[in-house]
Amino acid sequence: MQNFFNWITSNQQIIYIVILMVFVGIEVIGRVPSVLHTPLMSGANAIHGVVIIGAIIVMGKAENNNFTALILGFLAVVLGTLNVVGGFVVTDRMLEMFKKKKAHNPNNII
Amino acid sequence: MEISILTVLYLVASVSFILGLKMLSHPETARKGNLAAAAGMSLAIFGTIFLYQDEDGSKLHNYGWIFTGLVIGGIIGVAAAKKVKMTAMPEMVSLFNGMGGACAALISLVEFNHFAATDFTFRIFEAYDSTAGIDEDMLVLPVPTAMIITVLLGLIIGSISFAGSMVAWGKLNGRIQDKTFKGHHVSNLVLLGGILIISILLIIQIHSSFRLGPEELRILHLRNPLLSKINITLPVSVYIVFYAIFLLSLLYGILFVLPIGGADMPVVISLLNSFTGVAAACGGFLYDNKVMLTGGILVGAAGTLLTILMCRAMNRSLKNVLIGSFGGNASQTAVNKDQGQFKEITLNDAAVVMAYANKVMIVPGYGLAVAQAQHACHELEKILNERGVNVKYAIHPVAGRMPGHMNVLLAEADVSYEKLLEMEHANDEFPTTDVVLVLGANDVVNPAAKSDPDSPIYGMPILDVELAKTVIVNKRSMKPGYAGIENQLFFQPKTSMLFGDAKKVLQDLIGEIKNL
């Protein structure tokens, strides 16, 4: 029990961040019209690609003779980059279509 | 100095994620929002590469490997994202999501090996105080339990997300069929419980490896404590159990998604999306990295809410979706009904009915996406517009394979944003609509959701197309939809069927209308 409280005290910053971010995430999504659900899901998908930073740290800390760490870390960097880059590009492609159509026929409102 | 710059960069990146998500919620700012989040991400990535220092102040190395990885991943990512067809977008999102999950799981694998390879040799002089003798409290090494829990969580959630996304991807592009066996859900629960129990046992085992037994304590007192060392080694079983957890999590991910029907895939992808978010946040805990934590939790929370919103749109609980009444069981419940006769309509008649209507409502579904018929659909809309027909689209929130799937598809074909009606508005307009054209949609217009308490989709809000004067349904055949349920709508007197591939039928319709 003592350990648990110690842990809470020494990690309170992180715990605060988690709690606040949960509310921010809910608030931000709450007002999304359903037309934007797919791009939004795709955008969120790209944002959790931030896991790439962990992969970079793993890769950058691996010793030169530790091939398991090097190979796994390298794979993690490639997959993480796929998630980030692919995610943002796909989202942009989706949104581009919304925008193009808006610019094209502004008088088409019925 | 450098580390403070990195802190600022992370702060900027975190804010850009929040702003990005916020801007993504409005059609006018959505694209900028995406770019803002991408810019923030680039700052965080390159900041990490060049400025990151660990607690000892040493910087990262292996730049060659890192940049090669970034370039390879970047090229494949851009190529895949540029090449993918709009209809295959949900699969792509699922695939990228799986990559993120795999990345989180790999990080955990490396970190665990790193932890296990640490030299735990315990030097007695650290516990030895020359005046008071051995301080027994110091004889227990501080075990980084929180760190091990985080590594395990990242491994489990990341693996489930990866395996689940791969199955969802395979299901969406038709490579994997719905499969379920007797007691599937029970065995899933048992498996998940098993993973958790084994994880807890593993933590206890690691913990106890660090505690010195009475035998070791006795030896300590005999020797000269200043020279004494005790070797702490993790038993081989720790590795075996760790990799067993990894494999079981992958298996769970597969079994978790396998029985869930295609109609529920949007919910599952959204859920897995939030899983990956949480897995990324685990990495944030591990490295005390605020930007990973912020981004991960943000997506985890938002994804969970999105999942719940989608379940609510179908008037079902998340539990109901996951335990799943769609798919296998559904077809058995609804077969024993007298279906009556359906009637077909010729292309020419359909063309006449639509061309002389005042208001036509198009209800798109997955069939439209499969047939790539969005451009033909827009073509039909234009030609009807020229004849003075008011054409609108009724979009069910879960039509297609993803929320907003139809919107994206129609946007690709330049259909005006204002013509897409959400379900509530569309339902208000159906009574004044002359012709409803259902293009490859089925379950979202199935009146059984309102009238038949035995139906698996009972309670799901639907588009009330029967309120319109005439309904024309385009399908490839009389086969039931993805949920495997018969649709009473097709047998009603005001409904007529127009069989064929959506694209071909639309093109023929356009030709007929031109000839009128």
From TrEMBL, chain A:
Membrane-spanning residues: 14-32, 44-62, 68-91
Domain NAD(P) transhydrogenase alpha subunit C-terminal: 15-100
Cell inner membrane keyword on record: yes
A GO MF label: NADP binding
Keyword Transmembrane helix set for record: yes
Enzyme class: translocase
EC numbers: 7.1.1.1
Keyword vocabulary terms for this entry: Cell inner membrane, Cell membrane, Membrane, NAD, NADP, Translocase, Transmembrane, Transmembrane helix
GO biological process: NADPH regeneration
Classification via Pfam families: PNTB_4TM (PF12769)
Coiled coil regions, renumbered to chain: none
Membrane protein topology class: Multi-pass membrane protein
Gene Ontology CC annotation, any one: plasma membrane
Compartment(s) where it occurs, according to its Swiss-Prot or TrEMBL record: Cell inner membrane
Catalytic activity: NAD(+) + NADPH + H(+)(in) = NADH + NADP(+) + H(+)(out)
Summary of the function given for this chain in its UniProt record: The transhydrogenation between NADH and NADP is coupled to respiration and ATP hydrolysis and functions as a proton pump across the membrane.
PANTHER family: NAD(P) TRANSHYDROGENASE, PROTON-TRANSLOCATING NAD(P)(+) TRANSHYDROGENASE
Protein known as: proton-translocating NAD(P)(+) transhydrogenase
Native species: Paraflavisolibacter caeni
UniProtKB/TrEMBL annotation, chain B:
GO cellular component, one term: plasma membrane
Enzyme Commission designation: 7.1.1.1
Taxonomy, superkingdom: Bacteria
Pfam entry (one): PNTB
Residue ranges occupied by any NADP transhydrogenase beta-like domain in the UniProt entry: 7-510
Reaction equation(s) it catalyzes: NAD(+) + NADPH + H(+)(in) = NADH + NADP(+) + H(+)(out)
MF (Gene Ontology): NADP binding; proton-translocating NAD(P)+ transhydrogenase activity
Main location: membrane
Membrane topology: Multi-pass membrane protein
TM regions (residue ranges): 6-23, 35-52, 64-81, 93-110, 146-169, 189-210, 230-255, 267-287, 293-311
Family: Belongs to the PNT beta subunit family.
The protein's name in its UniProt record: NAD(P) transhydrogenase subunit beta
Species in which this protein is naturally found: Paraflavisolibacter caeni
